[in-house]
Design goal:
The complex is a heterodimer of chains A (169) and B (498). The two termini of chain A are 42 Å apart. Chain A contains 1 helix and 17 strands. Chain A has 169 residues and is mainly beta. Chain B has an 8-stranded antiparallel beta sheet, sandwiched between helices.
C-alpha cells in the first residue's frame, strides 16, 4: 500500500492505493474496474462515471485531467515529492524571488517596468501580444524588479522566463 | 445587370469558417480552393478543399493577410471568386478592390461599401443622416491625447475607445478616468494597427452594461433588402462574444419591428449588397443605438440559419453572381430558437488567456437540433498565431428552453482533451438562473463570474480524476500497467503530449 495526497482544484484528498482495483479516498474504499477498450474508462463500485478520460502531466507532480466537459487541476504528492517540495520551499524563502514566465507563446509588445523598480500587486509588468490580443501580465506580489530577461518586440515561447521579482515581505 | 455563374471559389481563410464555406461549395457543386500558412499545412481545411496551396509563413501578415499572394493563387487556379470568410481580409476594401481589378468576384459587398460601412466613423455619419440614433461620441478619429481628453470630458467618463478600421474587440478600451487615457489610447491604436493595418481610433460614450443585439440582412444588386431577424450577443468576455442566441429575449414585436426597419433603411441608404450585420446596443430603457456594421459573414451566422432554414453562404454566392434574392421578406419564416456557444482554446480561470497545445482527442456531440462547426480534429495543434476559436456548437429547439437544454446536454458530451478550453464555462453560463430567465446584459460574465466559474464538480468526477491521475502517475513510474489488453492508446498511461 502507498499513500498519496491528491489535490483536485486545490482541495486535498488522502488516497491509499492498494492495487489497481482497490483504493481508498479519504478512508472510503472504492473498487475499480478498468475498461479494456483503450478510452481510459472505468467503473467505480460497479457504476460508470468516466467512460473516457485523459491525463497530461505538466511536470512530475502537476497534471490536468479531462473528463468530458470538466478539466481539473491535479497535484499528486508522495513522500518523495513532499521532500522535494520542502527543500524547494526552504531555498525559495531564502532569496524570496519569483519568476514571471510567459503563459503562452507571444510577442513582447511593451515592458512596463524597469529594473530596480518597486512593484505592487496588480502593477502591469509586460504586455504580451498573442492571438492578436494584447494581454497585460500583472504582478501578483509586492516587490522589486531584479531582472528583465526579455526585450521589446522579441518573441517568447511558452514558459520563457521574462521578469524576476524579489518579493518584499 | 449581368449575371455570372461561379464554378470555383478560393477561400481566403482558415479554420472552421473555411470548412463551413467549402461545405456549401460542395453542396452547390462548386470547386473549392484552400490556402494555408506553414503551420496550417496539416489543418483539416487544406484536405477538405479540392485544391490547396501554401501562401507563406505562420504570422497572418505573411500569409492570410497577403492579398497579392492570394490573388496570384486565385488566378493560377482559374478561380472565379474569392470568399474572405470573417476576420483577416474580409473587411479590407483595398483587397475587395484588388480582387475585382483582377477580374475576380469578391463574395461580399463592393469595395466602396466596405470602405463606407467598414469605416466606423463614416457609418456613424450615415446613421445620423438616416435618422437612426447612434451612441454619443465622435464621428471622426481622434488626433491626440489632448483632443481625446477634451471629448471624454464633454461626454463624461467612462468612455470607450474603438478602432475605426474593424471590430471583434480588437483595438477597444474602456477609459474610466482621465489618467487612463494616454496608455489606453496607445494600446488601442497599436492593437488596431496590428489587427486592421489602420490605427485610427474614435471615442464613444460608454453605455454601462447594455444589451448587444444585431440584425442580419441580405441585399441583392437590384435594391432588394431583407432582414433575417436579430441575434443577441450580450454574453461577452474581453468584448468578444461567447454565446449568441436568436430571437433575443429582450425584444417584443414592436421594438423588433423598429429595429429591423432601422437596419433595412440604413442598408438601403448606403447601397450595400450581399450579407451584412448591423450591430445595435440597447440601454436599460430599451432604447437602441446603432453601433456599427459588419460588412461580412459573422461568426454567429448559424444561429440565424437554424431559424430561417437556409444557407447564408449559398445566398452570398447567389448575390455575388448577380442574381436576385429568391425570396421576399414575407417568405421568411422564423421557426423556434437557436443558441450558439463558441468553444475557445482559453483558460477562463486565468483571465481568458488563450491556451495552446495539441488536441489529444476531439469527439463532438451530434443529434437532432445540434450542429458543430469546427476547424480542428484529433491531433491538431492550436498555435498562438490565430484566433483561439476552435469550434461553434449550435442548438435549435421549438422553444428557447428546448434549445438551451439541448445545448447543455451537448456540451456535457463534448470531448476536447489535451487543451485548456471553455466548454464547462459555457455549460455553467447557459445553466445560470439569469441566463435561463433570459435576463442578462454585457456585464453578465463580470458580475456572475464567481458563480459561473465555481461550478461545483460532482463527487464522482473528482473520484474519477483521482483514480485517472494516480493510474497515470504510477504507470509513468512503471509501477503498474493498466489495460493489459495490449492497447497502446490507453488513457492512463504515460501520455504526455506537447
Amino acid at each position: 500500500m502507498e499513500n498519496y495526497t491528491v489535490s483536485i482544484n486545490g482541495k486535498k484528498f488522502l488516497v491509499e492505493y492498494f492495487d489497481q482495483n482497490t483504493i481508498l479516498i479519504n478512508g472510503k474504499q472504492l473498487s475499480i474496474t478498468f475498461d479494456d477498450n483503450g478510452y481510459g474508462g472505468f467503473k467505480i463500485n460497479g457504476k460508470t462515471f468516466c467512460h473516457n478520460g485523459f491525463c497530461k502531466f505538466t511536470n512530475d507532480s502537476f497534471a490536468n485531467v479531462w473528463i468530458n466537459r470538466f478539466i481539473l487541476d491535479v497535484e499528486i504528492e508522495d513522500y518523495k515529492t513532499n521532500l522535494l517540495k520542502s527543500l524547494k520551499k526552504n531555498s525559495a524563502s531564502a532569496d524570496k524571488k519569483i519568476i514571471i514566465s510567459a503563459p503562452m507563446p507571444g510577442l513582447v509588445k511593451k515592458i512596463e517596468v524597469e529594473e530596480n523598480q518597486i512593484v505592487k500587486i496588480e502593477t502591469g509588468l509586460i504586455i504580451l501580444e498573442a492571438m492578436k490580443m494584447e494581454n497585460e501580465i500583472k504582478s501578483k506580489v509586492n516587490g522589486i524588479v531584479k531582472e528583465i530577461k526579455v526585450k521589446n518586440n522579441s518573441s517568447v515561447e511558452k514558459g520563457a522566463e521574462m521578469i524576476i521579482i524579489e518579493i518584499n515581505q | 445587370m449581368e449575371t455570372k455563374s461561379i464554378k470555383k471559389i478560393l477561400i481566403a481563410n482558415r479554420g472552421e469558417i473555411a470548412i463551413r464555406i467549402i461545405k456549401t461549395c460542395k453542396e452547390l457543386g462548386i470547386a473549392a480552393v484552400a490556402v494555408y500558412s506553414d503551420v496550417d499545412h496539416y489543418s483539416p481545411h487544406t484536405r477538405y478543399a479540392d485544391e490547396s496551396y501554401n501562401i507563406g509563413a505562420a504570422p497572418a501578415k505573411l500569409s492570410y493577410l497577403n492579398a497579392e499572394k492570394i490573388i496570384e493563387i486565385a488566378l493560377q487556379t482559374k478561380t472565379d471568386a474569392i470568399h474572405p470568410g470573417y476576420g483577416f481580409l474580409s473587411e479590407n476594401a483595398d483587397f475587395a478592390q484588388l480582387v475585382e481589378e483582377n477580374g475576380l468576384i469578391f463574395i461580399g459587398p463592393k469595395a466602396q461599401s466596405i470602405k463606407l460601412m467598414g469605416d466606423k466613423t463614416a457609418a456613424r455619419d450615415l446613421a445620423i443622416k438616416a435618422g437612426i440614433p447612434i451612441v454619443p461620441g465622435t464621428t471622426k478619429p481622434v488626433k491626440s491625447v489632448a483632443e481625446a481628453q477634451q471629448i471624454a470630458d464633454e461626454l463624461g467618463f467612462p468612455v470607450l475607445l474603438k478602432a475605426a478600421g474593424g471590430g471583434g474587440g480588437k483595438g477597444m478600451r474602456i477609459i474610466s478616468s482621465p489618467n487612463e487615457m494616454e496608455n489606453g489610447l496607445q494600446t488601442a491604436k497599436s492593437e488596431a494597427l496590428s489587427a486592421f493595418k489602420d490605427n485610427r481610433v474614435y471615442i464613444e460614450k460608454y453605455i454601462t452594461n447594455p444589451r448587444h443585439i444585431e440584425v442580419q440582412i441580405l441585399a441583392d444588386q437590384y435594391g432588394n433588402v431583407i432582414h433575417l431577424g436579430e441575434r443577441e450577443c450580450s454574453i461577452q468576455r474581453r468584448h468578444q462574444k461567447i454565446i449568441e442566441e436568436s430571437p433575443s429575449t429582450y425584444l417584443d414585436g414592436s421594438i423588433r419591428e423598429q429595429l429591423t426597419q432601422a437596419a433595412i433603411s440604413l442598408v438601403k441608404m448606403s447601397g450595400y449588397t450581399n450579407a451584412g450585420t448591423l450591430e445595435f446596443i440597447f440601454d436599460q430603457n430599451k432604447k437602441f443605438y446603432f453601433l456599427e456594421m459588419n460588412t461580412r459573414l459573422q461568426v454567429e451566422h448559424p444561429v440565424t440559419e437554424m431559424r430561417v432554414g437556409f444557407d447564408l453562404v449559398a445566398e452570398q454566392i447567389r448575390i455575388a453572381e448577380g442574381k436576385k434574392l429568391s425570396f421576399t421578406q414575407e417568405d421568411i419564416n422564423f421557426i423556434g430558437n437557436s443558441i450558439e456557444c463558441r468553444i475557445y482554446a482559453e483558460d477562463p480561470s486565468n483571465n481568458f488567456f488563450p491556451s495552446t497545445g495539441k488536441i489529444a482527442e476531439l469527439k463532438v456531440p451530434s443529434g437532432f437540433g445540434i450542429r458543430d462547426d469546427r476547424g480542428v480534429e484529433t491531433g491538431s495543434i492550436v498555435t498562438a498565431y490565430y484566433d483561439p476559436l476552435i469550434s461553434k456548437l449550435i442548438s435549435w429547439g421549438r422553444t428557447r428552453e428546448e434549445a438551451r437544454k439541448r445545448l447543455s446536454a451537448a456540451l456535457s458530451d463534448y470531448i476536447l482533451y489535451g487543451i485548456i478550453n471553455n466548454i464547462d464555462f459555457c455549460h455553467s453560463i447557459i445553466n445560470h438562473p439569469q441566463f435561463v430567465k433570459g435576463e442578462y446584459d454585457t456585464g453578465f460574465i463580470h458580475k456572475y463570474f464567481e458563480d459561473i466559474y465555481k461550478n461545483d464538480i460532482p463527487e464522482n468526477i473528482i473520484q474519477s480524476a483521482i483514480i485517472g491521475s494516480i493510474a497515470t502517475y504510477l504507470s509513468q513510474q512503471k509501477k503498474i500497467r493498466i489495460n493489459t489488453a495490449g492497447d497502446s492508446h490507453s488513457r492512463w498511461k504515460n501520455k504526455q503530449v506537447d
